[in-house]
């Protein structure tokens, strides 16, 4: 008759199970700390050229930002994106706006060589006293995220439908061409469909 021998059973106390669970958790944590997920440090921040306009918060006027990059169509409320510029918000004054601010801005994806234009247009004063002061800031963001001012100033929009060129400037190799900034008028809003 063959005798059956049972393998000896290991008896484990509750503390041994808890100790092994804690040890396994520590091993997993150490693996994550030793091999953290890699971040893509070479990705530049979005918006190499940033254009911002603002007008008084107590004025419900609808003021529009229009921008144009070299070789592209103008970008504004009726064409919110091109190859280079994107309008991020079309602010209608106090309509559908819980922020209490009047603000529009556009950013670029890259900065191709050539001339850029920045205009404002008074779509509708909506009872605001004229002229309406519109503050504009144009900045260039470096690969490290540092901002350099290209233009900053305030313009006065005097009547409904008025379009005003605030600044034009040229870029070469991702940098502002020295002495290239000026405000010679160019129509962007009225001419965007023909570009």
What does this structure look like?
- The chain has 195 residues and is mainly beta.
- The chain has a single domain, classed as Sandwich (Lipoxygenase-1), CATH 2.60.60.
- It has a 5-stranded antiparallel β-sheet, with no helix packed on it. It has a 4-stranded antiparallel β-sheet with strand order 2-5-8-9, with no helix packed on it.
- Strand 6 and strand 7 form a beta hairpin.
Query: Uncertain spans, ≥5 residues at pLDDT below 50?
Result: none
Care to count the β-strands? 9
Q: Encode the helix/strand succession as letters.
A: HEEEEEEEEE
**What coarse outline follows from CA principal-axis ratios?**
elongated
Could you give a short account of the major beta sheet?
A: 5 strands, antiparallel
Report the CATH architecture.
Answer: Sandwich
Distance between the ends: 100 Å
Number of domains: 1
Q: Which structural class best describes the helix and strand composition?
A: mainly beta
Order of strands across the biggest sheet? 3-4-1-6-7
Name the average pLDDT. 84
Oligomer: single chain
Helix and strand topology:
Layout: H1 14-34, E1 49-55, E2 62-68, E3 85-87, E4 102-108, E5 114-124, E6 132-141, E7 147-157, E8 163-172, E9 175-176
Antiparallel strand pairs: 1-4, 1-6, 2-5, 3-4, 5-8, 6-7, 8-9
Entry keywords:
four-stranded antiparallel β-sheet, five-stranded antiparallel β-sheet, mainly beta, about 200 residues, Lipoxygenase-1
């Amino acid at each position: 008759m063959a005798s059956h021998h049972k393998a000896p059973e290991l008896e484990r106390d509750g503390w041994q199970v808890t100790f092994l669970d804690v040890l396994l958790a520590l091993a997993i944590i150490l693996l994550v700390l030793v091999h953290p997920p890699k971040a893509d440090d070479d990705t530049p921040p979005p918006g190499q050229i940033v254009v911002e306009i603002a007008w008084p918060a107590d004025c419900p006027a609808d003021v529009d930002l229009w921008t144009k990059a070299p070789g592209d169509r103008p970008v504004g409320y009726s064409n919110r994106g091109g190859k280079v510029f994107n309008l991020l918000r079309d602010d209608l004054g106090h309509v559908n706006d819980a922020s209490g601010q009047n603000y529009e801005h556009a950013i670029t994806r890259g900065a191709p060589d050539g001339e850029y234009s920045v205009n404002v247009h008074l779509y509708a004063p909506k009872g605001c006293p004229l002229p309406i002061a519109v503050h504009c800031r144009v900045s260039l963001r470096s690969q490290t995220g540092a901002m350099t001012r290209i233009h900053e100033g305030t313009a006065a929009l005097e009547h409904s439908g008025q379009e005003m060129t605030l600044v034009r400037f040229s870029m070469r190799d991702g940098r502002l061409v020295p002495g290239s900034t000026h405000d010679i008028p160019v129509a962007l809003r009225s001419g965007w469909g023909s570009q």
